[in-house]
Amino acid sequence: MSPVLNSVSERPLRRDAYRLIWRWHFYAGLFCLPFVLWLATTGLIYLFKPQLEPLLERRYAQVTHAAAQPASAQVAAALRAVPGSVLNAYVLPASPQAAARVLVGHGAELVRVFVNPANLQVLGVVRENDRFMKVIFYLHGELLLGSGGSMLVELAASWTILMLITGLYLWWPRNGRIAGTLYPRLRQGRRIFWRDLHAVAGLWISSFALLLLLSGLPWSKSWGGMLHTVRQSWAAGANAQDWTTGSASERAQIKAENTQAANEHAAMGMSMPGMDMGDMSASTPSDYSTIDRLIPAVTRQQLAPPVLIAPPSQHATHWTARSDADDRPRRSSLVLADDGSILQRSSFAQKPLLDRIIGYGIAIHEGALFPPLNQILGVFTALGLMTLCTSAVVMWWRRRPSGTLGAPPVLVGACYPGALVALLIVLGVFLPLLGGSMLLVWLIERIFLRRIARTRRFLGLAESV
Predict the structure, then answer these.
(1) Which single residue of 197, 263, 292, 305 has CA 20 to 30 Å from 270?
(2) pTM for the complete prediction?
C-alpha cells in the first residue's frame, strides 16, 4: 500500500501525479481490503459449485433405478408437498438414478422438491434461497443485506478497481527491472520480501481480477439497474435478460410469476364442476399432463443440462424448455406447442450483443466458461487477492510513521496532469458510486479535515513542497 518514489530527480509534474495516484491507492486499500478478503473467500467457495452441490444434496438427489411414473404425477406429488404452491419448472433428470427435481412457487419464493420418480415419495423439500450455494451467492453479492448490501459490495468493488489500476501504475516495472515485479527477491530481508510479494501478486493477478470485478457489476443493484435501463433502450423487443440485479428484483419477478400462475390455477378450478375455492390449494390442474408429451421432444433436442420445462407464465404464452447451464454460451431455449412440436428455438448466439458480452463475463466470473482451467484461474486470482490484502496490511503496519495513518503526504501547490484528472473523472462517471464517494472524500478532506491540526497531521495533509 505504500510504495516509495523511484527517484527524487523526477520532474515535479510527474512526481505530483505519482503522489496523487499513490494517495488514492492508499485510500482505496484502506476502505476495500476487508471486502476484498470477503469477496475472494466467498467467490472461492462458489467456484466449486459443480463439485459441492452434488455432495451436499446426495442424501436425497439419487434413487435406485426403477420404472418411473409419468412426469405429471411427479409434479403433482411435489405440489402436494408444498400446499398452495404452483408449478414453476420441472427439471429434466440428468440420469435414470437422479431424483426428480420440481421447482414450485409459493408467494415470493421458489421451493425445490426432490421426488422419487418410481414411487412418488417426496425425498426432500428445500427453499431455493436456503440452498448452500445460493446462500454463498447472496453472501458474495450483497452480504445477505438485500439492496443496501448490494450497493455496499458494488462500492467496494468499484474502489477495488481503482486500487488495482493505480497499483498497476505504481508497481509497473521501470528501467527494465523485473526483479521484485515479475518475481520476488527472497534473500534481501523481510521488508523487501513483503514489498515484492505485494508487487508480484498484484502484477500477475490484476488483469483477471479486473475482469472478475467488471463482470460482477451487472448483478449489482445500482450499476446493474442502470445497465438494465440501457438494455431496455438498446435491445427493445429482445427476450427478458437472464440475470437479476439483486435478491429484491429476483423475489419480485418470482412473486409476479407465481401470482399469475395461481390466478390461472384458480380460474381453471372455478371452471371445473363441483370444485369450490377450498379445493384450489390442494388441486393439480389436469393440463400438467402436457409435460408428459413434451419430455420426449425436449430430450431429443439435447440441450445442455440442467434443462427446465416450464408452463406458460407472464414472460411466455406457451410451454418452454430452457438450458440453465452454468456455461451460459451453451444455453438454448425452446417454445413448445402442447403436442410437443417445437415452435421456436433460440440459442445464445441469437441474443443481442450486450447480452452475449455479459453472458461470457458471468460464465468467466463463475468459473464455468472453460472448466477446469477457468476454475483454476479463479482460484489463482482469489488466492492472489488474499495475498495482496495480507501483504498490504503487513507493509502498512511496518512502515507507518508513529502517530499518523501512514497515507502518502499531500504536497501543497502540487500540479497534476490534465490527462490524469480526466482519467479519474471518466472512471468516476463509469462507476458512479466510486465517483460520488471520491468526490465526497475530496470535499471532506479539503473543506473540513484541513482545518483541524491533529487530523491534518494524522492524514498527512500539511506537507509543503
Answers:
(1) 292
(2) 0.87
